[in-house]
Each structure stands twice: as structure tokens, then as C-alpha cells.
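Final report, results section. Input specification for complex C-07:
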Amino acid sequence: MTVRRRRVVGSVLCAAVGLLAAGTASAHGGSLAGGGRETLTVPTWLFLSTGGAAVGASFLLASFVTDRSFIERVHAWGVPLASGGERGLVLAGRAVGLVGLVAILVTGFLGPTNARTNLAILLVWVGWWAGLAMTTYLLGNTWSVLNPWKTLAGLLPSLDRAYPDRIGAWPGVAGLLALVWVEVVSPLADDPRLLATVVVAYSVVTLAGAVVFGPATWFDRVDPVERVFRYYGRVAPVGRGDDGYRLRLPGMDLSTARLVDGADEVAFIVALLWVTTYDGLVTTPAWRDLTTPLVAAGLPAHLLYPLALVAGFGLFLGVYRLAVRAARRTAETYLAPAVLARRFAPPLLAIAAGYHFAHYLGYFLVLAPSLAVALADPLGSPALVPVLDLPGWFGGVALASVVVGHLVAIWVAHAAAYDLFPARLQAVRSQYPFIAVMVFYTMTSLWVVSRPEVPLPHL
Amino acid sequence: MSDTRLDDGVDTVPRSDAAYDVPEGATTYECGYCGRPFARESWLALHRGLEHPGALTDAEVAAFRTAHADEEESLGTFRLKALGSLILLYFGLLMVYALV
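Structure output:
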């Protein structure tokens, strides 16, 4: 993520939580020319406690809902959507995806080198990673159709080698961490040539994998990008049921029993949460101060970043597993830890989606006019690029999305616990450790955005 | 667990041995319909009523009713505590904000 992007992210989120903390709007979030993260008007500990308390209070509120049949009704509610003309839509979607990929490669290698006018940069970061990802959890997952590599892989022959079951989604977890590592340590959002090169590298790996194991296996089980979008799509109101598409309440699909099917998939969800934190963590002064002696002592900087990425992921996953163990005690249940881990991981996706929205809505709106200009003239390099100025109250939207993400997550976990345990108090008690974990994740993220931002050290 | 619920609750063993993890020497009350172990008898009674409503004997129905009534009572106490915590949290933070 570029420094510029981080600034938008930081100021919007800080303004958001600043609103929550102080009750006053004092920020102008989302200006590209704006300074670093907003300074808080309250002490950090109070800012963090307020964020944690908001999560705790949401849990207490959810625990007042004790009517089983009401909870089941809410989760079972759904309207089948009229189908028809799907074939044409799918073909059109695939064509759009392929055109997008070609546009990224052409403008990435041949377009202007200015990141603010280059279509490849704007299309990948603004159009795809901000815009399309937002539509994925707000409406529904379209990436499974748009995905140009899937379309291409369908045209290639396949060796259909058996995929080793025991490694499951772990290569996907590693792939997600690797993609984030490349994104953080390299100027991927500033250098169109580099971005196009990475896209080519990703294409080679993806297509090779799809040829060896078959496209269905590869995109279902390995490809991390496909999995991120599929999981985000579970938060969305439009989803696929047993018989066609249907409209549900947002997030309700997350309480489905067999959504996540193993420790590997749990790990992927935790990784998705961790990488949003890591992204900001490495630009805090605390990170710089902590790592300076390490680098001075001879630890190579290019090893430091992946090490920290993996260690932090291990910490987040360890904390989650501890929570699972603790939940077995607080709920006095004989269900195996793996059963609880699988069941209570999907709600975390709503939190991840909430943070993604808070991070990227401002970024998307500010740069959407630039994207439109670049789309109209892909190879041109206008001197003046239009950007949108966001009003001061905009931070409130980001705040709301963080809060809504937590509310949905707590509600879904509440419903899953009711489904899992016969006694309602037992269900409530099973949630104590998970709520503690959510508080931990939230406070970590809030702490990161409340720090002043420094350039990536040692690189 | 909903996995076993799919089996209609009749004469089933858990599909995988890993579904339950009972510590050695722990007291268990096992469901006669699906084999799921519980730590308390009242939870087993509730479980039978919720998961196997069609198959219960009269004694099991009575046990479910009693357990359900007890649960309602303890939920009432819990709600009061939760409300108290909410109020404490709210006013606690309010005070802190007034002081700093």
C-alpha cells in the first residue's frame, strides 16, 4: 500500500473512531493532500478502551435476544431471486474480466508511469481491490465469474492430478501472506511496470496450478484471491442457495454449519484479519523502534518483514485457538475444539469486511474520478487528474461500518452458539472468550491507526 | 450439533470420532438418540427436546419442561446482570471522559 493510500486509510479510520471516542467531528478524512493520521483528542488508552467497550456492549445487547425461534427465523429468512438470462450474464462477465486483465497488462507495461494517471494502478487498486471487493460483501460475489484466470484456465487442457487433501487450504494461506508481503514491501501501488510484472507472475503460477490440478480444484482450494472473494461474498445478502440465487439478510450465511471445514480454512480467515493489521503496523514508530536494534544487530531487513508477517499471523491464530480452548471450559461442552473453531471463525469475516469498507470506501470515492478519466483514455497522461473531496462528516461512515461489522459478527456468533448448545446460558458463556478475542483484534487495529505514520523503515 | 442433526437424530453415532472430546473421568450424560455427551443432565434434557422432539417419552418431555422452566429463570437473572454491566460500562466511560 502506498504512503498516500495509508494516509487516506489512517485519517478516515482515525476520524471514525475519534468520533466514537470524543463525539466531535474534527477530521477531514480522505484528502489525498492531507497529512498523516489524525491526532486524537483523547489519550490512547481511553481511545482503545472505548473501542473495546463498544464490542463488549454489542455482545451484552445481543445476549438479550434469547428467543430461539426468532433467531432461527432471522437466519432462515430468504427470498429466491428470479433467474434467467444467466448464461448471457456469465459470458459478459467473463469478457469484462478478460478485457480488464488485458487492459492492466497493456497499460501497466506501456501506459504512463505516473501512478495517478496509470489505468493499471487505478484499475487494480481502486476498481478491483477497493471497488469490486466492496460490492462483493455488500451485494454478492461476482469475482467467481469475472476472474479472468478462471476463464483462461477453462480453455487450457488439464492434467487433473489429484490434489493432496492433507495440505488443504494451507497453500492458499501461504499465498495470501505472500501477496500481502509483496504488496507491503514493494511499491506495487506506485510503479505500473512492477504491478504488471507481478500480475504476469501471478498469472503464470495460477494457470500452471490450474493446468496441473484442474481449474475447479485450483480455484476452490488453492487460489487465495478466489477464496478471499468467496469468503467476502458470504457476508453479502445475495448468495447461492441449494436451488439458485437468493436474497438473505447480510451476514446470515456466516452461521451456516459447514461453511468452514477445517483448521486450514479457519487459518485463512484469521490470516485475512491479520493482514489488514500488518499493513498498518509496519508504518508505526513502535515498529521502527522495535526493529532498529534488530537490524543493527545484523538481521537482514528483507527477512524481517516476512518473519514479522508470519509471526504475527501465528500470534493471531494462537490467540484464536486459545479462545477455542477457553470456550470449551466456559461452555462446559464436550464438543471437540475443532468443531468450535470451525463454527466461530466465519463471523470474523464480517469484522474483516467492516474494516475493509472503513479503509477503502474513502480511498475509492476519492480516486474514482481518476479511474473514470483513465478508463476513457487508457494510454493518455492528463496533467490534471480529478479527485473527489470528501466532506468532513465522512469519517462517520467509516465508523458506522466498523461498528456494523462487529454487530453482524457478534450476532452471527450468537446465532451459531444457539444452534450448537442446548442451553441458552451455555451459548452465551461460550461466547466470552470469542468476545475477548474480538476486543483484542479491535484494540490492536485501533492502536495501529492511532499511531503517527512513518515511512517503511529499513527498506 | 447441526452436523448430527442432519441424521434425523435416530440411532446415530457422530460421523467423525473427532466431533467430541470428553476428558477422562468426566461425568457425562449421553443422548440416547444421537450419542452426544453433555456435562449436565438438564442440558441433555434440553437437547432432547430441541433436537429430537418427535421421539421423546413422557418422562423425557417432563424433564424438558422442567429444564426449560429452570433455564427461563436463570436467563432472567442473567438479563439483569447484563443490564447492570451495560449501565456500568456506559456511565463508567462517561465519568472517565468527564475526567480526562
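Helices of chain B lie at 2-5, 41-51, 58-99. The longest strand of chain B covers residues 29-30. This concludes the modelling results for the funded period.
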